Amino acid sequence: MKSKIIISMLASIGLFAAAGAVQAQTAGDRVYVIDQRGEVVLSGTGLCWRTGFWTPAAAAKDPAGCKCDKDLLPKEVCEPPAPRA
Fold it and tell me: pLDDT-based confidence at 83, cuts 50/70/90?
């Protein structure tokens, strides 16, 4: 009886630990908070939530950088070059 309780407790601890690892967002990938749908999380005023790893250089590399912080990034990053005539 005791061994069944110990095994079920260990199994539940393992499941909780695995669930937390699956939902974790890797720090190096994105500098904006991403929800379950893969969209940037916005505040009530429409501003993007940044992670603690946000820098202007990292935001320039992030796919959502131009959507969230276009005014802080260099123009070359957010605007395509003009076509040559």
Answer: confident
Q: CB-hemisphere CA count at 13 Å for 62?
A: 28
CA distances to 15, 18, 39, 82 from 42, in Å = 30, 28, 9, 31
pLDDT tens profile 13-34: 766 765 555 555 554 579 999 9
Write the burial class of residue 49 (CB in 10 Å: 0-12 exposed, 13-18 middle, 19+ buried). Answer: middle
* Alpha-carbon span 68 to 49, nearest angstrom: 9
8 Å CB contact between 43 and 49: yes
Percentage, residues of the chain above pLDDT 70: 82
The C-alpha atoms of residue 67 and residue 48 are separated, in whole angstroms, by 9
Neighbours of 17 (CB within 10 A): 10
